[in-house]
Amino acid sequence: MTIFKSYTLYVFLSILFTLIKANSSPLILVSYFDGDEIDSTNCKVNQLIKATIIKPLECIRFQHQHEFSTLKYNENDHDDIIVETLYNDLDCKEYKEQVFHRLNYCNSSAHSFWGVENIQLSIINDIDIPINTIVHVSYKGECNGQFKNTFKRIDYQYTNYCSGSEYITTKSSCNSTAEIVHTYKGPSCSGTQYLDQVFPFVNDCTDINNNYLQFCNI
Prior knowledge:
This is SUEL-type lectin domain-containing protein. This protein is mainly β.
């Protein structure tokens, strides 16, 4: 009887440990830095522009404009690899190919409207959204703004980051209701400010599998 009780306890603890481990899977953090094609290894903290927190195996649009993919970190087999699986459909069912990303490796594979952004993938255990950011969240389930347990991806960009050319530059700020994009004539957002565009925040609940939320985190 004692042996049976010990075995039962062992099975229970094994199942409990498995459940805890499954519910505490590491998250994937994709960081974007101000970069250039000449120096693709420049991922300095003071040049961080924006970031994305991704839950593993969620079907999302990642870097590929017309393709959806899932990302997975296998800590048992590939300690330094993120596996991205690309699909031909919107539901991530029609397999296309796999792409491998090295953890904590800085490269210039991301291109923005204004130029090159250096990108770095890393692993985190908790959601930590920094202040002075504009946040965009895609989450599932009840549309109540409580996204930390049901999110698919969290994107945030830093306010007051200046981007553009030597002729036109922009930077963003935000308040409780909207993002404001300020446009300047001249470099470094130091020229004449001639345009402010206001983009009200969205709280969209039309699809229970893809609720959308925006807010200002200051």
